[in-house]
Amino acid sequence: MIYVLLCREFFKIGLFAVGGGLVTVPFLFDLSETYEWFSATELADMIAVSQSTPGPIGINMATYAGFQAAGIGGALAATLSEVLPSMIVVYFISHLLNKWAENRYVNSIFSGIRPAVMALILFAGWDIAKTSITDIKTLAILLVLTLLMHFYKKNAIFYIVISAIIGLLCKL
Hints:
The protein is an all-alpha fold and about 170 residues long. The protein contains 7 helices and no strands.
């Protein structure tokens, strides 16, 4: 029965939590009050763990919450149920886009959306920069790594590892 509840609740979260992983937090807080799967205190730990592990925050939190509720089976049920609505929507949109790809109205809509998406990405980057650049040392690391990425086209993982090493060496 717990697996059915996990599937239902996380399907709803995946369907209605539009806007990124942190948007799932109010839904998860509601789950902590409705079911005894995890407490509000554990939710804070879930957020911290989800932000510090690779992958989308919302999916990481679903996996963590499902594991807290019902072990590995719960983690799988919650994770798959949270991504299922997105998969369904993307499936139908991809078929519609293939059908309407040459439609001038559809192309106009996407031309209008692109600048808005760019603005959202820049705004998120600005917010991250404000909290990440705390002193001259972190600013220098940002500038050096930006220049390295510009002139030396390496895999992003390479620069993440280099950044982690620099952070450890500088005791950030």
